[in-house]
């Protein structure tokens, strides 16, 4: 998870309230000096995070297929690629 965030951190600028309101003067309704870190913006989600989560889930599937190919053991649902994808998405 941390590596995934690090991989996009420097590619997306932080977003201020002014940026989010497209230059509209929102000071009557909202005031803050806080910013949303760029890695947690929609642009980051669509431009890297979503693909990184898919890649991690795909890698998990390949690892499981390789490990289980010689074994008849069933995999725990907690370890499934789908579960990993859901956990990473929820955590993000």
TrEMBL record:
Organism annotation: Acinetobacter baumannii
Domain IcmF-related: residue ranges: 1-92
Domain of life: Bacteria
Protein name as catalogued: IcmF-related protein
